[in-house]
Design brief:
Elements (H helix, E strand, L loop, with lengths): L2 H24 L23 E3 L5 E6 L5 E8 L13 H11 L7 H10 L3 E6 L4 E8 L3 H13 L5 H16 L5 H13 L11 H6 L2 H11 L5 E7 L3 H11 L22 E5 L4 E9 L8 H13 L5 H9 L6 E5 L8 E9 L3 H18 L3 H14 L7 H13 L6 H11 L2 H11 L6 E6 L1 H4 L15 E5 L8
Parallel strand pairs: 2-6, 7-11, 7-12
Antiparallel strand pairs: 1-2, 3-5, 3-6, 4-5, 8-10, 8-11, 9-10
Length: 485
């Protein structure tokens, strides 16, 4: 007999019985009897992490030894709103080519191999009013990663062969951008809400073809300057050493180029825009002009929107149009948070062509009900709880904290912005929400944009919702969308 084996089995059984007995003394008989320690959480301040380096760089730095990693994110005051007329798409090309177009000291293909071999990640993204970048890598490769990031930010090569490849990809995407109704709707909506505005200009085959390597280099030199950036860094490193690294990586800030974004107004001329597409469904976005932040009405509008259509399946729109009536699989509303130009308040859904009239009528009925009767105590209580309980997810890790506060500063918000946010939500009343509902949710303020079968959608005399009566109305083919003024 193998006595060692028997002894091991007996010992394991004994330990199991002891553990089971201990567990039985603390595990309740029913889940309803479970008790949890209260969550004592407060919003972390960004001030302990913020520093302005000797080179003028604004940085948020946090040490975190949980894993042997370093994470970086940054904001550059640059966006597609700066694309020159006739060269729309310049920012879109640059967002890809900064990373894939090589750098002055390393050819693009070699750069790809170095990054892959060391499992590093670098990415750039450019929107209307911000270029954001991210990098992550093992802390042992910090020197290499910083050298590569420095060259991407301040010495990109924009190799011609890579430019040609990306332009070909971009042009092919332009040729197919109206293949699907969803992107077509977004394109048409921007045209309807921002007529003749720079943010509703779109790239074309001609504009992409006109962009040169020199255009990309000139743009980069103008906007990618230390004084035009805010950076967040977290990971396994010594803070003092990291400050020294950042001061070497970023050149001393000189005179920053003018980065004032162009003025944009949201003033739709049309009340209805119908884009013809031979499909059996209607893709719809109903929107109205809102405002640019900061604005005193934003928080009550945001809360009201969550109750009305932004709060997933529990919102009024989803409950009525989706669950009760079964007219759509997806419907939601959005109160846009824009700091550079006025946003919109919009409702988006899709439905069968024959149910477009009924669904749209029910939506406007819900708007009337909201304006007339306001919200309930329960709705306000529930949405406050949801919004406040979501806030900790923005500060889960040191990197979350520093990257959140870097973006907070980018948009010019106060250092105690998130404390003010919780106070504002906590103090919100039904009267506050009722007031903004009456102020903004007027049916005449809305423009209806639809992508679908024009002949069916424009059928006059519909007793529920007759889009032909919402004038001015324009009905066009998808091919005419880029030229719509």
């Amino acid at each position: 007999m193998n006595f060692k084996k028997v002894y091991r089995i007996i010992s394991q059984l004994f330990l199991f019985s002891v553990c089971a007995g201990a567990q039985s003394s603390i595990i309740p008989a029913h889940p309803s009897q479970l008790k949890y320690d209260s969550l004592r959480w407060s919003i972390p301040s960004g001030e302990p992490y913020r520093t302005v380096l000797s080179n003028g760089l604004r940085a948020y730095i946090a040490t975190d030894s949980t894993l042997p990693l370093v994470e970086i994110s940054g904001c550059v005051r640059y966006g597609s709103l700066f694309d020159p007329r006739g060269k729309e798409g310049l920012s879109g090309l640059s967002s890809t080519l900064i990373r894939s177009g090589g750098v002055e000291k390393i050819p693009a293909d070699t750069l790809d191999k170095i990054i892959a071999q060391k499992a590093m990640q670098f990415s750039f993204s450019i929107g209307d009013d911000m270029c954001s970048f991210r990098a992550s890598f093992l802390s042992e490769y910090t020197d290499t990663a910083f050298s590569l990031l420095q060259q991407m930010l301040f010495a990109p090569a924009y190799e011609q062969k890579k430019i040609d490849q990306q332009k070909a990809i971009y042009i092919e995407a332009i040729r197919h951008r109206f293949d699907n109704p969803g992107p077509t709707l977004s394109f048409a909506y921007e045209k309807a809400m921002y007529p003749n505005a720079i943010n509703s200009r779109n790239s074309t085959e001609k504009s992409i073809g006109a962009i040169t390597r020199n255009d990309l280099l000139q743009m980069h030199r103008k906007y990618f300057q230390t004084g035009n950036m805010i950076i967040a860094v977290a990971g396994s490193f010594d803070r003092k050493n990291m400050v020294s690294r950042l001061e070497k990586l970023f050149p001393k800030s000189g005179t920053v180029s003018d980065t004032t974004f162009p003025s944009i107004v949201c003033k739709p001329v049309l009340k209805s825009l119908v884009v013809n597409k031979a499909i059996s469904q209607a893709y719809v976005r109903i929107g109205m002009p809102l405002f640019k932040r900061p604005h005193d009405d934003y928080y009550p509008v945001m809360v009201l929107n969550e109750i009305f259509g932004g709060g997933s399946f529990t919102s009024r729109l989803s409950s009525k149009i989706r669950s009760d009536e079964g007219l759509t699989y997806s419907i939601y509303s959005s109160a846009e948070s824009n700091y550079t130009f006025p946003g919109t308040w919009n409702i988006t859904f899709f439905t069968k062509t024959e149910s477009f009239s009924k669904a749209t009528k029910l939506i406007f009925n819900e708007i009337d009900t909201l304006v007339k009767n306001g919200i309930s105590d329960e709705e306000l209580r529930d949405i406050k709880s949801v919004l406040l309980s979501e806030l900790p997810s923005m500060f889960r890790s040191p990197f979350d904290i520093v990257s959140t506060y870097a973006q907070n500063e980018y948009y010019g918000r106060a250092p105690d912005h998130y404390k003010k946010y919780t106070d504002a939500i906590g103090k919100m009343t039904k009267t506050d929400l009722d007031n903004v509902a009456k102020k903004y949710l007027q049916k005449d303020n809305f423009t209806v944009t639809v992508v679908g079968d024009t002949s069916a959608l424009l059928k006059a005399g519909d007793t529920l919702f007759d889009i032909t009566k919402r004038i001015p109305l324009k009905a066009i083919e998808t091919a005419a969308l880029p030229e719509l003024q």
